[in-house]
């Protein structure tokens, strides 16, 4: 299995872990951590399926004319022979996983966001380390494959009951951090009370909806700031004015977004 290195990610580190390479049930995991923008550029693999996952931030993705974001509860899945682009911000960990087989739930998806279950999210970092036994890693790989699935239904449909309301909303907003929908509007779509949805956010993410949305918007902005001016980024991630965006950004990170100078991309 061979993959290309990302571009424009200096300095960055890449750790490589391969198990059963050359076999249909093999897996190759590339673990990146960058001190600057992590830009995989325009990429295409004719013989390998791939997915990208970041447990520490937001991924900016593009496939054809579709652009968007993927949060930590999802991966960006890419079928072989599909051209795509992925970017991450500085100080962000990204797992790029290469496979020869397609997870059952993703058989009809050429490229796009897909859910990653809790067990799969736990197992992936576990096998991405030195000295892990191949047999155990391949057994974990099989469970990771099962743990990748289609995203939850759109919030307008709502889950069939029980927990998961906050995650349904979080996945929708992760695709568009600038979404202006209020908490009460999400609750109406899900046919639940505002109190129930707020409580589910605090249970799932340890913070209220407004705080979670602000953090997501700022994480997404860090990816965009490397290639877009502050004013454009502010509106893209849902702020009414650049000044309100700058204030929120400085409060979160201790410096202003002007520190990120847009650079040319190819």
TrEMBL record:
Stored SMART domains: HTH_ARAC
Transmembrane residue ranges: none
Cited Gene3D superfamilies: Homeodomain-like
Molecular function terms, GO-annotated: DNA-binding transcription factor activity; sequence-specific DNA binding
UniProt keyword Protease, yes or no: no
Keywords attached to this entry: DNA-binding, Transcription, Transcription regulation
Family matches, as InterPro entries: Homeodomain-like_sf, HTH_AraC, HTH_AraC-typ_CS, Tscrpt_reg_AraC-type_HTH
Pfam entry (one): HTH_18
Keyword DNA repair annotated: no
Domain HTH araC/xylS-type: 167-263
UniProt name for this protein: AraC family transcriptional regulator
Source organism (scientific name): Polymorphospora rubra
């Amino acid at each position: 299995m061979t993959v290309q290195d990302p571009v424009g990610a200096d300095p960055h580190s890449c750790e490589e872990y391969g198990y059963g390479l050359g076999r249909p049930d093999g897996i190759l995991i590339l673990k990146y951590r960058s001190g600057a923008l992590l830009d995989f550029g325009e990429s295409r693999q004719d013989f390998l399926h791939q997915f990208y996952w970041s447990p520490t931030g937001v991924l900016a993705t593009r496939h054809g004319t579709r652009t968007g974001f993927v949060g930590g509860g999802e991966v960006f899945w890419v079928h072989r022979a599909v051209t795509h682009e992925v970017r991450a911000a500085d100080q962000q960990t990204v797992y790029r996983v290469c496979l020869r087989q397609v997870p059952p739930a993703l058989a009809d998806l050429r490229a796009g966001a897909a859910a990653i279950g809790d067990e799969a999210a736990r197992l992936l970092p576990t096998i991405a380390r030195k000295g892990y036994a191949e047999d155990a890693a391949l057994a974990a790989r099989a469970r990771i494959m099962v743990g990748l699935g289609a995203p939850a239904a759109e919030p307008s449909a709502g889950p069939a009951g029980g927990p998961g309301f906050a995650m349904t909303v979080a996945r929708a907003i992760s695709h568009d951090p600038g979404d202006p929908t209020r908490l009460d509007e999400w609750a109406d779509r899900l046919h639940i009370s505002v109190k129930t949805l707020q409580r589910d956010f605090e249970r799932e993410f340890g913070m209220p909806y407004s705080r979670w949305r602000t953090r997501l918007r700022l994480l997404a902005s860090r990816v965009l700031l490397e290639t877009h001016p502050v004013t454009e980024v502010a509106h893209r991630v849902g702020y009414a004015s650049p000044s309100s965006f700058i204030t929120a950004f400085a409060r979160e990170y201790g410096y202003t977004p002007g520190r990120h100078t847009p650079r040319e991309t190819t």
